[in-house]
Amino acid sequence: MDSTHGPMRSIKLWPPSHKSTAFIAASQQFDKEPDSDGASAVQVYARESSKLMVEVVKRGSRPKEDQEIEPELVTDHIFDISGGRRAFIDAEEAKELLKPLKDPEKKFTKICFSNRSFGLPAAHVATTILSGIKAQLTEVDLSDIVSRRPEPEAVQVLKMFSLALESSDLSYLNLSNNALGEKGVRAFSDLLKSQSNLVELHLMNAGISPDAAKAICELLPSTNKLKVLHFHHNMSGDDGAVAISQLIKGSSYLEDFRCSSTRIGSGGGIALSEAIGTCTLLKKLDLRDNNFGPKAGVALSQAISLHANLTDLYLSYLHLEDEGTTAIADALTNSNSTIQIIEMAGNNITCDSAKSLAEFITVKKHSLTKINLSENELRDEGAIAIGKALEEEFGQLCIVDLSANSIRSDGAKTLAKAVVGKLRFRLLNVNGNMLSYEGINEVREIFKDFPRMLGPLDNNHEGDDYDELESKLKDLEMKQKR
Hints:
It is a single chain. This protein has two domains: 2-66, no CATH class; 101-109 and 125-133 and 151-466, Leucine-rich repeat, LRR (right-handed beta-alpha superhelix) (Alpha-Beta Horseshoe), CATH 3.80.10.10. The termini are far apart. By secondary structure, it is an alpha/beta fold. It has a 14-stranded mixed β-sheet with strand order 3-4-6-8-9-10-11-12-13-14-15-16-17-18, with helices on one face. The protein has a two-stranded antiparallel sheet with strand order 1-2. α1 runs antiparallel to α2, α14 packs parallel to α15 (409-419) and α15 packs parallel to α16. The protein has helices at 18-32, 39-59, 91-97, 120-133, 151-165, 181-187, 189-193, 210-219, 237-249, 266-276, 293-304, 321-333, 354-363, 379-389, 409-419, 437-446, 463-481; strands at 2-3, 6-7, 73-74, 78-80, 87-89, 110-112, 116-118, 139-141, 172-174, 200-202, 228-230, 256-258, 284-286, 312-314, 341-343, 370-372, 399-401, 427-429. Its main location: cytoplasm. It comes from Artemisia annua (Sweet wormwood). This is WPP domain, Leucine-rich repeat domain, L domain-like protein. Residues 21-66 form the WPP domain. It is found in: Cytoplasm; Nucleus.
């Protein structure tokens, strides 16, 4: 997502290597030929990798004692030491590694210290330098900087970084992977209290308990410019969700919200959904792996019906069931949003929701790129309904996943016939269902000219063979009754 602050994504940038350079070249080739099978991109990758490997061999390696300790990525504005192995950093290494930050001619605006674990001596070196350049900083990544440190030392280190960066005017802040908890959040009090212009905040895998969530709300003076908020993999629960909801209500410009794997139940889900309804500029919403249940699903449907800008919706493993699923599908059908990605895997969805899902899919046919309804119970009836919807002209559709849905051969064939000729289509996944051996061959025959568009079919059960036996037994029973 672009903004006036530049690309608002993680600033962790790994050092260029022969692999990454070749990958970039291959990616550029693939972008030139989006409808190809990727063979030319693979050839470019192989060619570029070979060239770079030859250069490395010709150049040889320097003796270890002649090598300088230097940051993995330094550009005119970005200073990143996150590359390489995850490791402790001592004071001497910190002095050498962070030396470019002291150069008055360099005006770094983005720094990333992630992947290095700071003890007190190294933190003293780092924070002394940071306090001198904080006025020029706009993006700071302090994720994973106290790994495996004892809690008292870790908290003290976080306080040192917080104090050093107090009153900086940041647009981006990443404090993920630090097992913060409430103590860790409050260790960053000086920094958080001074931030009124944050555009992007990451607190993933950070031990955000209910009390920690409340502390964040208490400490941040304003979130009225916030566009990206990520809370993935925390232990917030319902009480934490209520606190986060207050944060969201003050974030009217929010475009990208992630609160996945945070142990939120129905009550917290309802509170969160109501808050999400106030963020009418939302584009991406990720609530996966929580225990919302049907009632929170209905509340969420009321919220997303208001979001005309919504493009990416990740709602897998929320226990939505048919009630929540139907409500959400109907809301999306009647909304002005141009949904590109819809993920609703693992929600106990049956064929009772198929009609609403099919109608939603048909209405959004001009924008949808990915449909994931895997690990549900749609069965043949649901698969056929969705397959019929997919027969329409879908100009952007790339991926359809209905794996693990107890689908038999008729449903799988309907899906296959619906997507096989589509312009941009890349993958149909119907594995983990109940296709017979004959059904598998029939689906493969449909894709005979496009074999790479069909996912594996190696995990199917008794399928139609069982159906055929059951049908014969019923016929026998009827004959006996006569």
